[in-house]
Amino acid sequence: MSEIRVRMARDDADVETARELCQEWFDWHWQNYPSDWPTEADPDWLTDVEHPMAPAKFEAIIAELPERHKRPSGGILIAFLHGKPVGCVMYSKASPGVAEFHRMFVNSLGRGNGIGQKLLESMFDQMVVDGYRQVFFSSATFLTHARAMYKNAGFVDMAHPHGFPDAWRDKVYFMERSLV
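Now predict its structure.
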C-alpha cells in the first residue's frame, strides 16, 4: 500500500521543493508538448512576459511563489509518496469567496497512485477553511488526461473571462467548482 501524505508548505525548504517540482513540470511540458508553445522561431519567445511558458515569465512566477500563494488567502500544498515529494498544487485569492488554483503537477514517481486526487481534496478542504466558496482554474486544451480528472473532481466548464486574449481561446480552457 502506498504511503501518501499531503501538507501545506511550512518553510523555505518546502517552498524550494515546490519550486523544484514546478521546474520539473515546466521541463516535462517542453519535452512532451514542444510544438504547443513558443519556439526560437517566434521573435519574442524568450522574453514574452505574457506567455506563461516563456522561460522568462516562468522564472519570474517561480521566484514569486511565496508571495503569490501567501497565507492566509493562498497556499502551496506538497504531496509525498513514501516520504519523497512527488507533487504540488497552489492557490490564491481571485475575488471575495473565490480562489484560483495553479501549477498542479504530479511527477513520474507519483503518477498512478491517486496523488492528483489527494492534492485536489486536500486543497478543497483548506480552501473551505480559508473561507472560499468557489474555485476555478485554467489549463491547456492539449492536456486531455488532466481534464478528465478535473471533471471527476466536480469541475464544470466555464466561459473564458472577460478580456481573455482571442488568440489563446482555442489553446486554454477554464473550469470551476463549488466548494459548498
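The beta strands are 4-8, 75-81, 84-95, 98-106, 134-140, 156-158, 172-178.
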